[in-house]
Write a structure and sequence with these properties.
Length: about 260
């Protein structure tokens, strides 16, 4: 794995932001070099919504048109080659926007409930595939996808995200590994995650993790870079403080509230 010093990482992030401006996509982003010497661009759209561009392939994760009172403008993005849906809650699942972001043959990979709702649509350009926990797909020669468990564990919260329903996703870009947790708390399956370069961990109780749980999850996963997302009203200082001696780089983006 590549290991970034804080100064190197900040310079790399700055270069990524320059490339985003040139692309005229109005969201913060970073770029990363993969072991194949290709560039992965990651866009931070809002709350649980992300986008990845790699080797000419466009991926949207949980695209939604509204984040609270804010309307999110996706018009600058190219049509998606793949759209990932973690679960069916309104802040992660927007069938109308999925249609707008799709072109003929766009692959929509979703948990069972979301996939079944999308499959009810008529004359969709996209192709829907169900992804259960543990399922894998080779999206391109360079990109592999795996669905991993995402669920609540705290008594009284289990109804929000029942075990076996929602997905997190692990994306392998030529050996550069990104983990998008979906809506989850700390779960035992996190101990099976290995060599994660960038981890997006949902941090918004009672629905996902507390800042303290986020710290625990990060210490289990040991990513090079942690980006808390799905933040809501989360106070993120405790995350940075809890990981300051861990060697994990913490990146915070207000847009991900």
């Amino acid at each position: 794995m590549n290991h970034f010093t804080p100064i190197t990482f900040l310079l790399f992030a700055a270069l990524g932001n320059i490339s985003c401006v040139k692309a005229q996509i109005p969201f913060p982003c970073d770029t990363f070099k993969t072991p194949a010497s290709k560039t992965l661009t990651v866009y931070y759209i809002g709350h649980g919504s992300l986008a990845f561009a790699y080797d000419g392939y466009q991926i949207q994760v949980d695209p939604v048109a509204k984040n609270g009172a804010a309307n999110l403008d996706y018009s600058a993005f190219p049509k998606a080659d793949a759209i990932l849906v973690t679960h069916e809650h309104f802040d992660h699942f927007d069938p109308k926007l999925i249609g707008k972001l799709s072109k003929e043959g766009t692959s929509v990979l979703a948990n069972k409930t979301s996939a079944e709702q999308l499959a009810d649509g008529k004359n969709n350009a996209f192709v829907v595939s169900k992804m259960a926990n543990g399922d894998e797909r080779q999206l391109t020669e360079s990109i592999r996808l795996r669905a991993v468990p995402a669920y609540n564990t705290t008594p009284g919260h289990l109804k929000f995200h029942p075990k076996g329903n929602g997905n997190g996703y692990v994306l392998d870009f030529d050996g550069f590994i990104v983990y998008v947790s979906g809506d989850t708390e700390v779960v035992e399956e996190m101990s099976q995650l290995r060599k994660i370069n960038v981890a997006f961990l949902s941090t918004n109780q009672p629905y996902t993790m507390t800042p303290e749980q986020c710290v625990v999850a990060a210490k289990i996963i040991q990513p090079e870079i942690l980006i808390p997302y799905h933040l809501g009203n989360t106070k993120t200082d405790a995350i940075s403080e809890g990981l300051k001696e861990s060697g994990i780089e913490v990146r915070l983006f207000e847009v991900l509230r």
